[in-house]
Amino acid sequence: MGALWVVAEPGPDGGLARISAEAATLVRDLASTTGRDAIGIVVAPDPAPAAQDLATFLPVVWAIADPAAADHAWSAVAAGRVATLLATETPDAVFVGAGADGRDLAGAVSALSGLGVLVNATAVSWTDDGPAVEMSVFGGKLVTTSGFTSGRGIVTIRPNVTTAVPAGGTGRVQARTVDAPTALPAVRVVERVSEAGAKAPIEEARIIVSGGRGVGGPEGFAIVEQLADALGGAVGASRAAVDSGWIPYSQQIGQTGKIVKPELYLALGISGAIQHKVGMRTSGAIIAVNRDVDAPIAEFADLFVAGDLFAVGAALLDRLRARSG
Q1: Are residues 93 and 13 in the same domain?
Q2: Summary mean pLDDT of the chain
Q3: Does 121 share its domain with 269?
Q4: Residue 300, number of CB atoms within 10 A of its CB
């Protein structure tokens, strides 16, 4: 049998990015059911921290040191290394998280290696013809299953479609040297911007309180923010609220925003159009507050409250503060 590769992204702190832990979990399970080897690849100036983290998910991790990744775009640096490895080795498939960097890497490796790409996988199984990749299309209205004509290729895995679960033991980390890596145009990073006051990234939040068109304006997000703070969660929004300029795009959840999977999703004044549903439907529990009893979100929410979001939000906030006091 062959091997399945996972190209992992280092996080801002040098450790493993959550999206890569999720991808590693999916690939480990797939390798186990198909009798293949699961191998992780970390490319970084100092790959040790991320490689050690990845080894808690996979049995074998290749750590590749590349100083250029310190001040250049990671996707371009890592793509050159991976493409060089693919020139001499033939894994059955290469997987990477479908974040911004992962998508860039997949495209570059595809161009360099000639392998095809299937994007935003929500599930992957195996057939006699190679990986069978499920993808959500048309705003989540349809689910397709696709494969590679050559039987092998690159798959990007959608965030939050699986839960990152460490393996029973720790794998081994092997230092790898890639001679004469494929050269790509150097994309220098000239500035890094961190969102002031941000807690955990919204994609990693256990609790999310979101506001939509129903909050009425930027001042309406005050109750959303207060509830998120009382619950120890993050603030999210629908595209309508973002397009209106009430809240930054970084908080948008949905087809053209972030894909989230919190344990609790509290939606205030959000109708629940299919584009928004795509981004939060895998939440553990969905609670919605809306005046319109016919709002689409009522069909898939675990609890739907028909009422004024400000009145309901204020009452909930009072109960939360009383409990914590």
Answers
A1: yes
A2: 92
A3: no
A4: 14
Q: Is residue 299 domain-resident? A: yes
Write 46-52 long-range contacts (CB < 8 A, 24+). 46/14, 47/10, 48/173, 49/10, 49/13, 49/14, 49/15, 49/16, 50/8, 50/9, 50/10, 50/11, 50/14, 50/15, 50/16, 50/17, 50/20, 51/173, 52/173
Residues 314 and 236 in one domain: yes
Domain of 225, in residue numbers: 202-324
Number of domains present in the structure of the chain: 2
pTM listed for this prediction: 0.81
Span 153-202, pLDDT tens digits? 999 999 988 989 999 899 999 999 998 777 787 788 888 766 544 456 78
Cβ-contact 126, 151 below 8 angstroms: no
CATH code for the domain in which residue 240 is found: 3.40.50.1220
pLDDT band of 122, cuts 50, 70, 90 = very high
Q: Which stretch of DSSP H or E encloses residue 277?
A: helix 274-280
Does 252 reside within a domain? yes
